[in-house]
Design brief:
four-stranded antiparallel β-sheet; 8 strands
């Protein structure tokens, strides 16, 4: 197939525009001439506003795999089986209603921070594994979608398409972190919606396309009684498994307030479902097309699209059922959607590794010596390149886009969702219950088998279809239901055994729990967002007003704090400090600029942490 020069030019222009936006956003973050540290790269200084926040949260989910996979599933199994759009939309809504507030108010940096805080670094690192698997599969799905689209519409080699697209996303992510990712998401989502909305009316009017209302029985699909359990299992996987993602919580924790994070989640849920309408219509159009009346028949001598090419249905419709100019806009929509998710996923994987795996590992190997901020920042940037390369490699070798999009939330659902829910809402859970629930969850899930990756079945749940090797029972939901009480009951059991001194606390997680809970509650109060009434009268100091004070916490290294007025001893202070080492109880004051003698100072309980 010859390369379509004008199509290639259109894609190059789009990529250049996106890249420039990413670079400008990255430079905006460095206006004061200061290099971004790891937390600023991850959370954009917790300064993402509601408009950009809604767009970036929506665009993160609505990627190339999302729109290509939606069209693919409508033709393959019918609209009723296209669960990802409304499933992930409901996931955002549930996340906003129940999870966004406690995560944002706690001042965490990553999704794994509550595990690190309560269970320690080893358990947090283990929980990184399912998160990594989900992210890699998701990134591969959307990059594969782009590769197939560029191949079909402009004749560009699939491998080259994937490599170039991933490289551009990696480059601007390296430059500005979440700043670049968030601002490019706005442009990418607008490009995507414009291109798809423009394309489907032209495709619908093509002479080879029958009235989709008449052909509805062919593309609506149906749910057999035998598949009811599978349908329920899939729906719950998408809804609940769509919550414990670093991509989502990165947006939550980068928002200015917890209330804004909740608003962003609910609005993004609506945007997520709405964005699936154009690709679903395009899928219905593809199912209603007589392909012998199109250029597809002339090019490939095929009367219909074979099942192995279903992943290319959306670009095929753009290429053969719309005018060239319109198809280029549609292809731009796919490309924009791909990069809007790719950059987010790569940054999220890297953030978890640098902050929750490398940093504690470095401290352990360094015999207590912590990694410097500069070191962690460089690890974050190197991880962006490495994970971008891994996702690219997987995208080149994978087949079904929708299968990847669906499976990526599998391990997240059965492993991470019960763990995150317990660590946030069940105060008595501990590392013992978490570890047992983690191991049990993996055994049950792997035992159910997974044909996509050649994993054999050795646990046969009820209603197992031996003829087709399919688990008909909603086994993933059952695993989640089993994991929840496992974590809770074993946490309570080990807590009792340790308190009675029947067994030693060999993981050191249950000692002085009451005191730890009291201290934790006080600390949490200190990091909560202040209401508008409480904050509107607080003086935001100019640079000349800020006096630097250096405190030394008894068990940590030196940390810089900035206060509105160093002479005040009560009231509301403005503190800008890394969340991991925020002020706690009384600390020794080593004053170098404040004009005060060394002594102790009590950090007020109400403060602004970002």
């Amino acid at each position: 197939m010859e390369i379509n020069v004008w199509g290639l030019v259109a894609i190059v222009i789009l990529y250049v525009v996106i890249f420039i936006i990413g670079i400008i956003a990255g430079r905006k973050a460095k206006r004061k001439g200061k290099q971004l540290d790891s937390e600023e790269l991850i959370l954009a200084n917790r300064n993402i506003g509601p408009f950009v926040g809604i767009f970036t949260m929506t665009a993160t989910w609505v990627g190339g795999g999302y729109i290509n996979g939606t069209a693919e599933e409508v033709v393959k199994n019918g609209l009723v089986w296209c669960q990802a759009p409304w499933g992930y939309g409901l996931a955002l809504a549930v996340g906003g209603l129940f999870f966004a507030k406690p995560m944002r108010e706690s001042g965490y940096i990553t999704m794994l921070d509550p595990f690190h805080e309560k269970y320690g670094p080893v358990m947090a690192a283990l929980l990184y594994i399912p998160a990594l698997i989900g992210d890699l599969l998701w990134a591969a799905a959307i990059l594969a979608a782009l590769g197939s689209s560029l191949t079909v519409v402009i004749g560009l080699d699939n491998t080259i398409s994937i490599v170039v697209s991933a490289a551009i996303a990696v480059l601007y992510t390296l430059m500005g972190g979440l700043y670049s990712v968030a601002y490019t998401d706005v442009a990418q989502l607008l490009f995507m919606m414009f291109g798809l909305v423009l394309a489907f009316p032209f495709a619908m009017k093509h002479e080879a396309v029958s009235d989709i209302a008449v052909t509805a029985p062919d593309w609506l699909g149906s749910i057999d009684v035998d598949n009811t359990g599978t349908y329920l299992d899939s729906a719950m996987q998408l809804i609940m498994g769509g919550i414990p993602w670093q991509e989502y919580f990165q947006r939550v924790m980068s928002s200015r307030t917890a209330r804004q994070a909740q608003l962003m989640s609910c609005m993004a849920a609506f945007g997520c479902i709405l964005s699936a309408v154009p690709p679903a219509i395009i899928g219905a159009i593809a199912a209603s097309t007589n392909w012998t009346m199109t250029g597809y028949y002339r090019d490939f001598n095929l009367t219909s699209v074979p099942p192995e090419e279903y992943k290319n249905l959306l670009p095929l419709v753009l290429n053969y059922l719309t005018p060239p100019v319109v198809s280029f806009f549609g292809l731009g929509a796919v490309s924009a959607a791909v990069m809007s998710s790719t950059d987010s996923i790569i940054l999220s994987m890297s953030s978890l590794f640098a902050h929750n795996v490398y940093r504690p590992l470095r401290q352990f190997l360094g015999c207590g010596r912590k990694a410097s901020e500069r070191e962690v920042t460089w690890v974050l940037r190197i991880s962006v390149v490495v994970y971008g390369a891994l996702a690219t490699l997987m995208a080149i070798t994978m087949n079904s886009v929708y299968a990847l999009l669906f499976i990526c939330s599998d391990a997240i659902y059965v492993i991470l969702f019960p763990q995150l829910t317990c660590v946030l809402f069940f105060k008595k859970c501990n590392v013992y219950g978490s570890a047992i629930g983690y191991v049990l969850g993996w055994i049950l899930r792997l035992g159910a088998g997974e044909s996509t990756f050649g994993i054999p079945t050795f646990i046969y749940f009820p209603w197992y279809d031996y003829e087709n090797n399919i688990q008909r029972f909603p086994f993933k939901l059952l695993i989640v239901i089993i994991t929840f009480p496992t974590i809770i009951l074993f946490s309570l059991l080990f807590d009792l055994l340790i308190r009675k001194e029947i067994i030693p606390d060999f993981l050191s997680c249950c000692l002085a729990e009451t005191e730890a809970d009291d201290t934790s509650n006080k600390e949490r109060e200190g990091t909560k967002d202040l209401s508008e009434r409480e904050t509107k009268d607080i003086h935001k100091p100019r640079d000349s007003d800020v006096v630097g004070l250096r405190f030394r916490k008894m068990d940590t290294a030196d940390v810089d704090f900035h206060f509105e007025d160093p002479k005040r001893t009560s009231g509301i202070w403005e503190i800008r400090t890394p969340a991991a080492v925020e002020g706690r109880e009384a600390m020794t004051l080593n004053s170098d600029n404040a004009g005060r003698e060394s002594g102790t100072a009590e950090v007020p309980s109400t403060r602004i942490s970002d």
